[in-house]
Write a structure and sequence with these properties.
Strand order of the largest sheet: 1-5-4-3-2
Oligomer: single chain
Distance between the termini: 50 Å
Helix content: 10-25%
Order of helices and strands: HEHEEEEHEEEEE
Shape: globular
Radius of gyration: 18 Å
Length: 245
């Protein structure tokens, strides 16, 4: 009698967190989680393909990096995570990592990073909530962002709203209606339970910017918000041709 010793891999949300955590010790980087032949990179500071990612990891001084996964999610074949980093070239940053999986391996990657501006930027609720609420959560968050695209004031905000944008009033989403903020395109909406991540672009103080916004929805209204904003460099500075989104 033969015993099947195959081990069921962890959910893809947990694999994304493990990948980022492994940066602390590059010798434990889980190569088997990647499809090296089809890997598409959307971080514009890196060359395309899996080799460029390995070159970046090799460039980090041994033992210099720290990673703290904060919130992890998955939506179909896409996993995404909210994390804090200390990376030698960048210092303390907060970011979102997004992976698309096919046949159990990562084939595409997006991210957004910005300097960490204190614990208030990342603290708050971590429990994902009931997965049965995912569709409603995504609908509420998408409607919120689409109102920004149309130049309308934010709607569907809960009475106890909590704002984690580092320069905003923590009790109201005035950040979205600031004069120097313009959302122009909503590219992707990802959710699980009470949380939804929207990936959008626009302009911040006149500069082309990627807006990654994480919303927590409660009783059909936006109850909590985190974000990461990253300037999109001019086209001639891109290290790959895949675009930010």
């Amino acid at each position: 009698m033969t015993t099947d010793k195959r081990v069921t891999p962890p959910p893809i949300r947990e694999r994304t967190a493990a990948i980022q955590k492994s940066i602390e010790s590059a010798d434990r980087f889980p190569l088997a989680y990647f499809d090296s032949r089809r890997y598409v990179q959307h971080n514009l500071a890196l060359g395309d393909g899996f080799g460029a990612l390995l070159e970046f990891l090799d460039s980090l001084p041994a033992g210099s990096s720290k990673v703290r996964p904060l919130r992890t999610f998955q939506d179909g074949d896409i996993s995404f995570a909210h994390l804090e980093y200390f990376l030698a070239p960048l210092g303390e940053v907060v970011g979102f990592e997004v992976h698309r999986w096919e046949d159990g391996r990562i084939v595409e990657h997006w991210d957004n990073l910005q300097p960490l501006a204190g614990p208030g930027m990342t603290d708050g609720t971590v429990e994902r909530g009931d997965p049965a609420r995912t569709d409603e959560t995504k609908q509420v968050a998408a409607a919120f962002v689409r109102s920004l695209l149309q130049g309308q004031p934010p709607q569907q905000v809960a009475a106890g709203y909590v704002e984690h944008h580092p320069a905003a009033d923590p009790t109201r989403p005035w950040w979205f209606s600031a004069a120097d903020v313009e959302y122009t395109t909503l590219h992707r909406t990802l959710g699980e339970g009470d949380f939804c991540l929207t990936m959008a672009e626009g302009r911040l103080a006149g500069e082309h910017t990627a807006f990654y916004d994480l919303f927590r929805v409660e009783d059909g209204r936006i109850a909590e918000h985190w974000d990461v904003l990253e300037r999109i460099p001019p086209r001639d500075q891109w290290r790959n041709d895949n675009g930010k989104f």
